Amino acid sequence: MTFGDQGTPYDPWAAERERIRRARRARSAAAAAVGVVLVAAAGAGMVLYSGDGTGEASAAKASGSPRVSAAPDVRVSGSLSGAPSSLPSLLARPVIRPEQAFPSKSVRLKDGSRYERVDLATTTECARGMSQQLAAVAQQGKGCVRLTAALFTDADRRSQITVTVASFRRAEDSGMVFGMASMDPVTYQVVSLDPPAQAGLPTVPPGSPGVFRRLATVRSVVFANGQWGDGSETAEAALTKETEGLLRHVNDTVVAYEEGKGGSL
What we know:
The protein has an eight-stranded antiparallel sheet. Strand 3 and strand 4 form a beta hairpin. The chain is of the alpha+beta class.
């Protein structure tokens, strides 16, 4: 399903955005700054960023979804020192389309675990799928071109993991968004999808703990938000493993596309 492009009456982000506006979430777990690593991928000419996820595994359990107040007047800047000489040609490629980022409804990871894609939403109005603060950062540059999100569940249909690909016109804008989301993953986050009725999955209760992770390529930031469908606070390690596994899988797909290899991995 597409979102925002074809006038569909179903808004897959509306419920979560409303919870974000109304609710509060404890933010102490995200107070410490998260390290950012800039890595030039060998031979591929890609630039990858990685957040270490410190303090994010249970980022906010308290009372509802992350609070979003009026967007602060934040000014950030980014640069890619030592960027590969092939960067201009990489940026010349069209941004990845929904069917390229999420080509299959059934996903099997390298560890053998299997996941079902139960929803897919895409929009060129990226702010619809972001918290107010993250959207404000994205708008400071040349803009987000497309945001696509997919909701996955595991073989036991217990987890609900939203993986989101936000693609930008400029590499430095991707870096700015990634940096802010790494420093404060609760405030600067993308919105998780609620399962559609036909999926037969429960809506995650407000205030449930979650795992927030992200990776970035030259022009995209890939986010993963993982929660147990029943809102459970147990088995954090298992939820983290599932969330990070799907994040790496989708990130590899985006990297392959941006390198010009196309197709999924």
